[in-house]
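Q: Okay, next protein. This is 4-carboxymuconolactone decarboxylase from Kluyvera genomosp. 3. I've checked the sequence twice, so it should be correct. Can you predict the 3D structure?
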Amino acid sequence: MQNSLNNQQQAMIPIAAFTARGDIDKLTQALNEGLDAGLSINEIKEVLVQLYAYCGFPRSLNALGCFMSVVKARQARGIVDQEGNTATPLPENWDSLAAGTENQTRLVGQRVSGPLFDFAPAIDVYLKAHLFGDIFQRDVLSWSARELATISALAAIPGAESQLKSHYAISCNNGITPEQLRAFVAVLAEKCAPDIAANARAVLAQYLN
């Protein structure tokens, strides 16, 4: 992966950030710009679906409804957008927990455990089985693209600095460079809100130091 973010990667950042913020007006513009930049319909759908795990079903469903309207409006204007690939079907007898545990370990670089998961083991199962098993197994997006969407959303959520810092590390463990993370912050500053960029920049400085 090159140090600079390509057009599709840059376009994904405001889509995820405005989804997490629930800013439908700005999301509408970001979705149009994402399609214009070459993101496929299914790639954007995949971002919006994944983000329910980070910012909740209400924001995810609202964003998907917004995207449906954007696609219909573009079709009415005669714009033909690329549908894109669909996810490869999961194999028979798929074990979400086993696969998710393996995926999470590969993403993070080590097996994840700790007092929080001992205190609430159910959340550990849901993270491993559903997020890292069922969702991250879907091959519409690469893991680096999924992490880019994740850090974009987390930067836009007040109080999620600890998770953002952790996902900076996961991003770097999955092909995103520190230079690209700096470019990510620059896109937030240009396309999103100053407070989102400032939050991302401060947490990135902590991570890199």
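A: Here is a summary of the prediction. The chain has two domains: 7-84+140-208, 93-138. The CA atoms of residues 150 and 207 lie 16 Å apart.
Q: Noted. On to the next one.
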